[in-house]
Design a protein that fits this description.
The complex is a heterodimer of chains A (447) and B (448). Chain A has 447 residues and is an alpha+beta fold. Helix content of chain A is 45%, strand content 18%. Chain B has 448 residues and is of the alpha+beta class. Classes of the chains: A alpha+beta (447), B alpha+beta (448).
Chain lengths: 447, 448
Amino acid sequence: MGVPADVRYPMTSRVLDNGLRVVVSPTPGSGVVAVNLWYDVGSRHEQPHRQGFAHLFEHLMFQGSRHVKSGDHFALLQGHGASLNATTSFDRTNYFEAMPAGVLDLALWLEADRMAYLDDVLTQENFENQVDVVAQERSQRMDNVPYGTVFEKALPLIFDPEHPYGHLPIGNMQHLADATLAEVSAFHARHYMPSTAVLSIVGDVEESAAFAKAEMYFGHIDGGEPPKRELPPTLPPVGERRRADFSEEVPAPGVWFASRLPADAPQSRDLAAVELANAIVGDGETSRLHRRLVRQDEVALAAGMGINPLIAGNSLGLGSVRVVPGCDVDEVVSAVEEVLRTFATDGPTDGELAVARAQAERDWLDDMGTAAGRADAISGCAMLYDDPEALNQRLPLLRSITAAEVQEATQTWLLPCLNAQVRITPAETASDAEQDRTSTAELGGAE
Amino acid sequence: MENPPAVPPAVDWSFPSRREHRIDSGLTVLAYDCPGQFVVAASVLFDVPLSAEPPDREGVAGLTGRCLTQGAGGRTAEEFADAVAVCGADVEASASPDGFGVRLSVPVVRLSEGLRLMSDMVGAPTFDEAEFAQQKRLRLQEIDQAASYPQHVAVEQLNAALFGSARAARPVGGAAETVLRVERADMAQYAHEHFQPTSATVVVAGDFAGPDPFDAVSEAFEGWHHAGGERREGDAATVAPGPRVLLVDWPDAPQATIRLAGRGITRGDPRWPAMFVANFAVGGSFSSRLNTVLREEKGVTYGASSGLDTDRHGGLVTVATAVRSDSTAEAVSDIVSILSAADGTINADETATAIRAATDSAALGFERAEAVVGRVEVLLSERLPLDHVDANLNRIRQVTPETANDAFASVLDPGALVVVVVGDARTLREPLEACAYAPVEVVTPPRP
């Protein structure tokens, strides 16, 4: 026993003269290398009238730069066997590729070119095209999917509209349609520079060679003046009942519980305790919610709790119960409350704590099983905590959390999730649904 | 630096080497060493086709899969779930067209415990009556729920149109009508007939620097002896050719969900490597013709792609996208035009790129133990040689523009596709008729 406890990923960090943080973690002989860039910009940095801009901008990063034709970023890398993409979240935007070891130089050159010279080649046509693509992305992921917009509906219950997490990264399609090419240049100038980025190089490359390549491709880029990181204070859990009800074309009623949780921070015992509590209550077939609602009472099709760890004051929690059609939603919510209150009173059993730790351990080992997974985690730890080594502290931290801490986290942070509820019930007819959508808008405006 | 740095030829790669072992009971074990993979993937794959289900009890295989995780080795459902979870494992069991798989994911230090739990699932499932009733209820509710998801409905309609009366025409987990008829005894009978060591292969992959996987598997499965019914062979499903256009009415849909398919080939077909190359160029990559036109030029979709689906007896060429509603008919015409225009036009650049992408991405594609086991499952299910991955990559290296064009032309008939559109029939019917690909058949799906 004990191998997972001993699994550590060695890494070395340096800062280039221009401020670019570079972390290298070699795994010789694997044949694969991963490059991962996190930029310190996400939807929380957006202006109120440009919600969704950080994500739109991420799309534009694939539309060519000074020495790269539009579309070539994907074509060149995929043509050499790479897997690549980018994602935008509340806190950050990341760009990543994993590839055969020999493709490393090409990947670094492409990333450096768009970090330094994105807006030389961007055309109005490419810009408008990607505004259209993002609108279809939103349709496909959210608007044309039952319950697809629930996260968007839950946010106003726990954050004011001007809070950094008051809106989703996908944003507002009208804001994007109103944006201009000039704003793209300004955004690049403000947020994309060596000193706002972390570059991780992980896999089959020698440490000294990796640092030399980072210097060769990125060292010449002007460091720039990074915006100061300003984080709002931690908000306490929501203290009074807030509810938003909707009637839509969905196959079963659903209830969501939104919560403000402790912010993600280096070695945060608070968040780690919440994570374990959350898993015991709402992750998988051994969880208390599943056993009570799906198995025992047979009133839910599914029940679970999720966490989105974030740094600006609070993380986000979202629990959900898909209710069996015909069952009384109020009664289901009462059962959820009973489960949470019992857990808050009694705390976890030894068995539950062991399960939560063991499952977190497998998840971590699984995430670390690819060069791409390790590179992403390293960039995250370096960007959010200024400590890439925090990656190797994850399991020791989870193992050190006590039952008492889990119980306290439940009382302080999880229980209040009952206060912010979104309910969606199936619309009887199309015209009913439209009427309810109108009242929805009013509710959103009143927040 | 103005020009991209040169990329050296990729280092040779081969599929992880296989070690094979047979246990006295007749069980075959295949082990793959994957250094650095501290989460082991393991599967027990039974050689039983989905068509072995009694026709009036379709869904029994899927329900058996669900119930295998609901108690085994003398444990109740909750005891079993706790035992799995506390060793950091995850288990799953499900049927596919050519086989039935029981799957385990577990940290390598708890491999023995994980394998024993898996052995209990296949050799000593509890099959409690109340748990069966609950899983049947959940499956029926799942069927109900799925009917509200346009992507799901599109695929179901496509399969129904393509495969007529064959098993492949209906959901793998069974439709409500037949699931309702399945009883606990049917499930027990199914497991008794089909779960036997002589028709099973255990596949394990992971970092085995510590434990010996054969010892662990032998020890876990040593008590499993069973002589069940005789082995069944699946039938080849014939693909009913189009052209057909099915418009599934989805009032007020903000987007149209589109699926197209035509007859394809098996992975064992001599044209497979060339067809793979052709498909990469046409729709199998981000920079493919389909995605370039529909996303990067027209901006009517988040993505459009084509793929090659296979089972033991045949295959499909498929196209999937979701587009802005008012561009639906144009998108369907574009897709058909792109597929038609591909005939004879796949060029040297596209061929070279596809070959390099396929061969150079292999190390990456099989980095995870789970991916290795997953591919071996496909090879076993489709009865392909276990050295198929390397052999296929070598054949892909030999593909030329001529062979790619020949394969595409001989496999895909762009005039005989089945097109399914899930969208608002009120606004889409007329423009789709105007495409003149085929008469539009409007389908009104039952929605809960």
